[in-house]
């Protein structure tokens, strides 16, 4: 079976009311997982962290993307740069974990040094190398033939930001992030997201494929049976499509139901938020690996790091605007909010892990879509197919007919 041929995905390419889900091997096959890294993750804008984590010169994030280790670093001039995490001399990994560096990136093997702009500063004889003066001639490479430091800078990786997120793209010829996002920045402009700050972080090690986690977030078909508490603030009848053009799927909960137990609305809303944004939850899955629930007073972010066909490291983060935590009871509200999201997330983890187990059944070869609820899953799976087949396409938004079908009742 060819994972890069459209014929392989013929049943998922059908209109959603006739379509079947992706072949189960897309969630359980090592061969598919390896192909996915090559054909999907290398040419996608992958979320890797938060702007807040790299605001100061020398701050470094180390992330794995498409099987490669990537460095994201804030340069002295304020520019955000990204590089493959490999020394140009003998290939050593330069940095192993997030950190803050004083002046340069220095290889631990032979002390080659690089600037935060990726430029090769020098072999061991650079300022501060620590080599005694009488031993320096041994390390002098000035007479080495056909060696020019300018040819040995770090391998660059495209990097950009939106809202509070940092993204990288391994493909040097990738379309700009703004094209990838489509109309999402315009839709979220009223939230002032660049000012929001991290309040709580939780990691999870999940025995399920990354796509199952993403697909679970983008449909509400499962809510009554998996999330009885969430249903109190996110009723089925209040869920509607909220889809424009871009590499994302979206729905909205309008209005968010008032509920004292959940903690969703314990914090005051950000003062800039107005209109329908002030009473709604916007739930966005930004392809391929980040899902966000935007509420008037906080955001809940799920970031996925695929490890194998049946294992994903997930990191969840709660963020707020400073307005929303400028109250005497903010700490209590944040604790309540974090506990609520943790409980909801663990319910989701339990069910997607059961799906992963079920997908190992050879007789199961995929299921039919449920049109009303699973159109976002169909959209997402077709994004996967496009990337796997080398098709560079940004999906359109809803037509007026679809928008009216899935919009709030008049």
Quick recap of the structure?
The chain has 410 residues and is an alpha+beta fold. It is built from 11 helices and 17 strands. It has helices spanning 10-13, 25-28, 30-39, 136-139, 177-181, 184-187, 210-217, 223-226, 330-358, 371-388, 400-406, and strands at 46-50, 59-65, 68-74, 80-84, 99-100, 105-106, 113-114, 120-122, 158-162, 165-169, 197-206, 239-241, 248-253, 281-286, 290-294, 299-308, 311-320.
Could you walk me through the main structural features you see in this protein, from its secondary elements to its overall organization?
The structure is a single chain. The protein is of the alpha+beta class and 410 residues long. It folds into two domains: 46-158, 3-layer Sandwich (Rieske Iron-sulfur Protein), CATH 2.102.10; 183-406, Naphthalene 1,2-dioxygenase Alpha Subunit, Chain A, domain 1. It is built from eleven helices and 17 strands. It has a seven-stranded antiparallel β-sheet. It starts with 9 loop residues before the first helix and ends with a helix.
């Amino acid at each position: 079976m060819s994972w890069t041929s459209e014929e392989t995905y013929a049943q998922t390419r059908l209109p959603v009311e006739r379509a079947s889900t992706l072949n189960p091997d897309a969630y359980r096959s090592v061969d598919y997982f390896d192909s996915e890294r090559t054909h999907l993750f290398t040419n996608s804008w992958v979320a890797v962290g938060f702007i807040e984590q790299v605001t100061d010169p020398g701050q470094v994030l180390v992330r794995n993307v498409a099987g490669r280790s990537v460095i994201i670093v804030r340069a002295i001039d304020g520019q955000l740069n990204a590089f493959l995490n490999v020394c140009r001399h003998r290939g050593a990994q330069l940095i192993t974990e997030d950190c803050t560096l004083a002046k340069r990136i220095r290889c631990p093997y032979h002390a080659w040094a690089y600037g935060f702009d990726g430029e090769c500063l020098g072999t061991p004889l650079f300022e501060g190398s620590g080599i005694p003066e009488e031993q320096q001639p041994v390390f002098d490479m000035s007479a080495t033939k056909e060696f020019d430091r300018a040819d040995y800078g770090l391998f660059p990786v495209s990097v950009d930001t939106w809202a509070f997120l940092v993204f990288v793209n391994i493909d040097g010829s990738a379309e700009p992030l703004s094209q990838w996002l489509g109309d999402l920045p315009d839709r979220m402009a009223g939230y002032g997201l660049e000012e929001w700050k991290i309040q709580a972080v939780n990691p999870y090690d999940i025995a399920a494929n990354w796509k199952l986690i993403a697909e679970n977030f983008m449909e509400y078909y499962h809510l009554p049976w998996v999330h009885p508490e969430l249903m109190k603030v996110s009723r089925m009848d209040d869920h509607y499509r909220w889809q424009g053009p871009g590499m994302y799927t979206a729905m909205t909960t309008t209005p968010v139901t008032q509920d004292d137990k959940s903690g969703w609305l314990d914090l005051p809303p950000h003062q800039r938020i107005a209109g329908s944004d002030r009473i709604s939850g916007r739930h966005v899955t930004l392809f391929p690996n980040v899902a966000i629930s935007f509420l008037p007073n906080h955001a809940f972010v799920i970031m996925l790091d695929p490890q194998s066909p049946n294992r994903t490291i997930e990191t969840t983060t709660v963020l707020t605007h400073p307005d929303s935590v400028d109250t005497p009871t903010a700490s209590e509200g944040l604790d309540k909010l974090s506990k609520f999201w943790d409980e909801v997330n663990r319910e989701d983890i339990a069910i997607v892990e059961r799906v992963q187990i079920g997908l190992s059944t050879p007789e199961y070869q995929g299921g039919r879509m449920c049109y009303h609820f699973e159109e976002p899953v169909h959209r997402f799976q077709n994004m996967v197919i496009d990337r796997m087949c080398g098709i560079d396409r940004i999906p359109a938004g809803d037509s007026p007919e679809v928008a009216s079908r899935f919009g709030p009742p008049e």
